[in-house]
Design a protein that fits this description.
By secondary structure, the protein is α/β, with parallel strands linked by helices. It has 6 helices and 5 strands, in the order αβαβαβαβαβα. The protein has helices at 4-18, 37-48, 60-69, 87-96, 113-122, 135-146, and strands at residues 29-33, 53-57, 73-78, 104-108, 126-129. Helix 3 packs parallel to helix 4 (87-96). The radius of gyration is 22 Å and the shape is globular. The N and C termini lie far apart (55 Å).
Length: 150
């Protein structure tokens, strides 16, 4: 039989082990769609620097496969000019699917008002011209959709 102090020590030991570790921060997932490996690496680096998990695709067709394989994707960053399926076609396919609310951000060389209007009409949520690209600028846009958790 345990004495009072032994029982108290055992109880305290149980309390100490019952303390849970702090909850881990949820990792948000973004899909980066860009056919240029250099530009894709820059975008991925910018997103990773804010703690985001990035899945990559080199064109719209690959992006659709990635979206199917990764339903946890919360935002798409896409170029417009790509082989097989361009960014406009990708955005239209996303909007036509069950992912109507999946935010899409275009990062493109094309900077005319007509190009921007075409992308926004297809369903893009934001547009950034590559010549104006910066990590801070991209994050400013993306954080509107994901929330600033940097």
């Amino acid at each position: 039989m345990l004495k009072g102090t032994e029982l108290a020590n055992l109880t305290q030991g149980r309390r100490a082990t019952a303390v849970r570790a702090p909850a881990t921060k949820r990792v948000r997932t973004v899909l980066c769609v860009e056919d240029s490996p250099i530009i894709r690496a820059l975008v991925v680096e910018a997103l990773n620097s804010h703690g985001l998990r990035v899945i990559e695709a080199s064109d719209g067709k690959e992006a659709l496969s990635q979206l199917e394989a990764h339903p946890e994707v919360e935002l798409v960053v896409t170029d417009i000019e790509m082989p097989r399926l361009d960014g406009i076609g990708l955005i239209a396919a996303i909007r036509a699917s069950g992912n109507k609310r999946l935010p899409t951000v275009v990062v493109s060389n094309r900077g005319s008002d007509e190009d921007k209007k075409r992308a926004l009409t297809a369903g893009a949520d934001a547009y950034l011209v590559k010549s104006e690209f910066s990590q801070a600028g991209l994050w400013s846009i993306i954080s509107r959709f994901l929330g600033d958790h940097s």
